[in-house]
Amino acid sequence: MKKRKVLQASFNLEDTFEADLLTYAIAQGDVSKYIKRLIYVDKEGFRKPAEVRTVETDVLREAMNSVKL
Amino acid sequence: MSKLILGIDAGNYEGKTVGAQGVDVWKTNISGLTERKVAEVFGEDDMEFSVNGRAGLAGTIAKYESRRKSNGMYGQSKAHWQTEVRVLLSVYRYAMKYGVNTSRVSLVTGQPYVGHTEAEKGVLKALLQRTHEVSVNGNRMSITIEEVGVAPEGVGAFFSQPAQTCKVLDIGSGTVNAISFEDYRVTNYNSDTFNYGTEVASANEVVDGAIQDTVALGWNTQDKVYVCGGSAAQLLPEIKRFYINAELLAPVYRGEQLATKYANAVGFYTLANGSFR
């Protein structure tokens, strides 16, 4: 009995979004390990939390109102 | 029927759309409709479209089916038909992707900082604010845009992750917007748009030009400069040789960090939510 199962993913090189993903994935080194780590992170529900600079709501509201759309 | 609120960055290279449901990106080449003798399959963003009677090809396919080298009207204003087509195709794609209704759309889109005048905004709003008939690959959709806001590029990016006092260097494919902020407000005397970008000049020309032209505006080597745009990550190391505190502008969307190329679209969406909700 085979001890390993190989999964495939194809990337459309004419699609900038997919080509970007492929370039990024390759840059991570061992793609197989990288994908397994991604699956683990997704399965466990982790997300990369954004580092948010805190701004008081009314300060932000005033700043947004100063932009004439 | 609830409104569909969107931020749309209708760039000459890529179009980015942000709404409550998620984000979308597509290659914004546009060319006239030509009869193709060999029908090849290009990208998932290929669109044979008709927008208000104007027919053409858009997406990756347009890059290969056009006789011209450039497919964009690069410059200091987006108040022209290509923006109308790009915005409508962006709405169409978003509606198809997320299964949302397009009978009541409110959106904020962008204009280069120097082109953000009442006259140019008026032209763009007149093009967009009505009911449009869109057909893509034979599928028809009616899109009614009820409200349109036009924000300056770079200023939009700022609102994707605001900082009290900083500079934003928004490097696009056709223009670079250099915007200064003090106490969360734009200071006009040291903000400008430069007429070059990564699709019309080399990376070195763009970086050298942006540094020289921002120094001429009075920017300082110590300033906190946030860099955004599709090529920002590649250009950042060179920019940091002069602006030593420069870093990528990381847009925050639903508590998560998106790639910097979404900065303007996320900011436009933030502004749209503030104005139209």
Mind explaining what this structure looks like?
The complex is a heterodimer of chains A (69) and B (277). Chain A contains three helices and no strands. Chain A has 69 residues and is an all-alpha fold. Chain A has a domain at 31-69. The mean pLDDT of chain A is 85. Chain B has two domains: 4-151 and 264-275, ATPase, nucleotide binding domain (Nucleotidyltransferase, domain 5, 2-Layer Sandwich); 155-252, ATPase, nucleotide binding domain (Nucleotidyltransferase, domain 5). Chain B is globular. Chain B contains seven helices and 16 strands. Chains A and B meet through helix 1 and helix 3 of A and strand 3, strand 9, strand 16 and helix 7 of B.
Descriptive keywords:
heterodimer, A: 69 residues, mainly alpha, B: 277 residues, alpha+beta, Nucleotidyltransferase, domain 5, nine-stranded mixed β-sheet, five-stranded mixed β-sheet, 7 helices, 27% helix, globular
Order of helices and strands of chain B: EEEEEEHHEHEEHEEEHEHEEEH
Low-confidence stretches of chain B: none
CATH class group of the largest domain in chain B? Alpha Beta
Helix content of chain B: 25-40%
